Each structure stands twice: as structure tokens, then as C-alpha cells.
Amino acid sequence: MAERMVGKQAPRFEMDAVLANKEFGKVSLEENMKNDKWTVLFFYPMDFTFVCPTEITAMSDRYDEFEDLDAEVIGVSTDTIHTHLAWINTDRKENGLGDLHYPLAADTNHVVSRDYGVLIEEEGVALRGLYIINPEGELMYSVVNHNNIGRDVDETLRVLQALQTGGLCPANWKPGQKTL
């Protein structure tokens, strides 16, 4: 039986990544916590596929909105940083990513994907999991999609804003509306 993660401390991670400036570096939950940032951590199956670039570029195109909410976005797959960089260096018109405003991390040993419960063991790829973690390291939101279905950036931003109100947000709550 799966163990509940929401409301508990999120699994800590540190991964190699291609940073927004296209340099290789590291990303970690601890660093985001130290900087008092929310973390939007999302997993995708693999580079050079069809649904993934639509999500990754949509998140990047809206990155300023995440930044305004004191949130760091991190994309993760089980591909290498070298494959990530090749995909970033491929133009969007050619099914590439082009420049991104946040890092893509490489979970090549599958530890982080496994810790977050999204690893498809027999394929060595991750499901489309998205997690929102508060600055104290508590996992506040979790959603996992089938790999055929892309995620909605509007909904991710809405949930992040709802979590940041600290109040009770009713169904269909939108930013600017009253909480309960």
C-alpha cells in the first residue's frame, strides 16, 4: 500500500542539473528551503518526446509568475544533463526546448523519482508527477498524471497561490477571492 506524502516532510534531494544559464550545476530542496522559497518540482518521462516539451516550455513561459510567488521550479527526468542540454539547445520549432528560465535536473540513478513515487521501474522513466513544497520542506500538494496527459500551468499557479493564502480555499477558488 502506498504511503501518504502530503502533509509530511518532502524527500530531500540534490541532483545534477542544467541551470537556466545552460551551465551544469546542482539543485537541491535544502537550498530552496535555505532561501525561504517554495519548490515546484515536476517530473516528466524523457527528453525529445512529444507532450513533455509542451509542459516544459509552458512552465518556462510563465516562470516570472512563479518567481513573483517566491517559488523555484525544477523539472526532472531520468535522462542525463547532457541530453537535457542537447534538448535545450534545440530550437522549439524542431521539437526542442530553446532557452528555459529554470533548471532541468537529471535523476539518472532514479532515487528521487522512486522517493516521490513516480518511477516506472520496468521502463526507467518517471510518470508526470508534480509536487509543491513549502519553504519549511513540507509537501503540500501532489498530483500524478498518466504520461499521455500534459499538466495545466494555470492550475499549478492557482494551487500555489491557494496554499500561500494559509486559509481554507473552496472549490473553484481563484486568486483574489475570499477564503473561508
From TrEMBL:
PANTHER family: ALKYL HYDROPEROXIDE REDUCTASE C (PTHR10681:SF121), THIOREDOXIN PEROXIDASE (PTHR10681). It holds the Pfam family AhpC-TSA. Keywords: Antioxidant, Disulfide bond, Oxidoreductase, Peroxidase, Redox-active center. Gene3D superfamilies: Glutaredoxin. It comes from Cytobacillus stercorigallinarum. It comes from the Bacteria. The lineage of its organism: Bacteria, Bacillati, Bacillota, Bacilli, Bacillales. Belongs to the peroxiredoxin family. AhpC/Prx1 subfamily. SUPFAM superfamilies: Thioredoxin-like. This is Peroxiredoxin. Residues 4-165 form the Thioredoxin domain.
